[in-house]
Amino acid sequence: MEGSRTLETIVRMEAPPDLEPAPLLDAVLEEASVNAIGPDSIAAVAARARMSEKEIHELYPDHRVLLVEALQRRDELGAAHLAEGPRDGRTLLLAFLETARANTAAPGAVELFATLSAAATSADHPGHEYFRTRYQALRHLLVDALRELEEEGELEHGADPQGIATQAIALLDGLQVQWLLDRGALDMPSLVRSFFNAWLVHPLH
């Protein structure tokens, strides 16, 4: 097992108890929900945040840092929402499916994540540590969810929680790139659900 944290502990660690307002980061996410985000998006983000472009450049001389912090904000908002509900294994798999569904409504955010995650494989990218830690935390969460289901007799014989978790994350990442290239070609939530259901005694609906 990658770690000994329980599902409840992981969710509690990932979700800040009091999420402070972050108008600029929220403005980036709002813009990303409707448009592709890049260096040329600062004017639109500034208008949403009611700031000047100069103010943003002074705060974030490297626009990549702003974009990475916006993704961190997105994670925090999602974790806070997750912490409000049940934390059993099946519910957490459904939350992973909901991420796939919600992403289809925010193509700009999906493109931002895909572009930054690819660039951040370079160790000197400002998002390198964020993505490394994020993938590690998501693996922990899914592995613990699957191990809980295994203990309940809900996983097929021979299922490997570690392998399933890693493949599920890779599947969603790959599907998102394909979806960005041709949004009518596939149904991301359905395909992710089918992958999990291949290993579950009682399928997700």
From TrEMBL:
Q: What superkingdom does the record give?
A: Bacteria
Gene3D superfamilies for this protein: Tetracycline Repressor, domain 2
Q: Which InterPro entries match?
A: BetI_C, Tet_transcr_reg_TetR-rel_C_sf
Residues covered by the BetI-type transcriptional repressor C-terminal domain: 103-188
* Record-linked SUPFAM superfamilies: Tetracyclin repressor-like, C-terminal domain (SSF48498)
State the Pfam families in the record.
TetR_C_6
Protein name per Swiss-Prot or TrEMBL:
TetR family transcriptional regulator C-terminal domain-containing protein
Q: Which organism is it from?
A: Demequina zhanjiangensis
